[in-house]
Structures are given as structure tokens and as C-alpha cells.
Inverse folding.
């Protein structure tokens, strides 16, 4: 009987796009400043200024986690301040961060009660679950109106 190996983790960093009702997620094996900067680069590609693209305000709500407060992270945020506004949430206040609800939905409804062969399998499952969650969230909330009597 094969025995499970050592537990491997996959860290998730994400942003919730309220306008498009989408979750943008970056996965990595660690949770360091370089991983946060990689997530910011993801946001650059999706929302950053480009010639011919209409400029829209983008606000990023961040908690005061060490990953967000490092010198490298602050420098990366400073280079984007012309298009990316940062709102700092109070310390130890996850109830103020709307993405926490989405993380709970993702973990409870899409990733719970599963085992994964390895970290790569878990990472693939995370991205598939995010895609599924985004499909569910992109539906119009009032798209299926019914009359109840």
C-alpha cells in the first residue's frame, strides 16, 4: 500500500475584480515578496495602462502582511502608483477584506475533501477551481428571475 509523502503546500495570492466579478490568483511554493511582485505583474498585464486602452482607476486593498510591507514590495507598488492606488486595511481585520469570503468559498466548495498526488497536482486543481469559480461568479446575479407566489 503506497504511503503518502511529506505534505506540500501551495501559496495563493489573489485580487478580486469587483467590476468583472473575477478572481485573479497567483500560486507559488512560497509566500515571499517576489511572489507578491509576480502577482502585481499579473495585474499589470490585466489592468495596467496601455496605448489605446481606456484608463480606469484600480484600487488594491492590502492587509499589513509582511509580504506587502517589504522594501521590494513597496518599491514595486511605488512604480505602479500612477495607475494603482493602494488602500491599507487595519491589522488583524480579515472581516474588512472581501477576498477572505471568496477564499473561503474556493476552499470549501471547490477544493475541500480531495487529495492531491503532489504540489503540481494541487496547483493545477487550484487554477481549475478558480476558473470554475469565475464562471459561476460571472453570471448575472439576477439573470434567472423567477416569480414566487
Amino acid at each position: 500500500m503506497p504511503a503518502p509523502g511529506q505534505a506540500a503546500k501551495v501559496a495563493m495570492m489573489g485580487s478580486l475584480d469587483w467590476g468583472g466579478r473575477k478572481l485573479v490568483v497567483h500560486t507559488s511554493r512560497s509566500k515571499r515578496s517576489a511572489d507578491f511582485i509576480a502577482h502585481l505583474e499579473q495585474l499589470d498585464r490585466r489592468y495596467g495602462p496601455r496605448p489605446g486602452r481606456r484608463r480606469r482607476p484600480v484600487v488594491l486593498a492590502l492587509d499589513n502582511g509582511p509580504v506587502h510591507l517589504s522594501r521590494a514590495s513597496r518599491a514595486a507598488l511605488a512604480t505602479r502608483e500612477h495607475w494603482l492606488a493602494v488602500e491599507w486595511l487595519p491589522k488583524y481585520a480579515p472581516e474588512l477584506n472581501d477576498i477572505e469570503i471568496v477564499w473561503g468559498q474556493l476552499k470549501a466548495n471547490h477544493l475541500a475533501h480531495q487529495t492531491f498526488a503532489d504540489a503540481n497536482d494541487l496547483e493545477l486543481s487550484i487554477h481549475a477551481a478558480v476558473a470554475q469559480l469565475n464562471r459561476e461568479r460571472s453570471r448575472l446575479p439576477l439573470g434567472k428571475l423567477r416569480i414566487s407566489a
User: Anything to note?
Assistant: The longest helix spans residues 119-138. The beta strands are 11-17, 22-28, 58-62, 84-88. The domain at 11-109 is CATH 3.30.420.10 (Nucleotidyltransferase; domain 5).
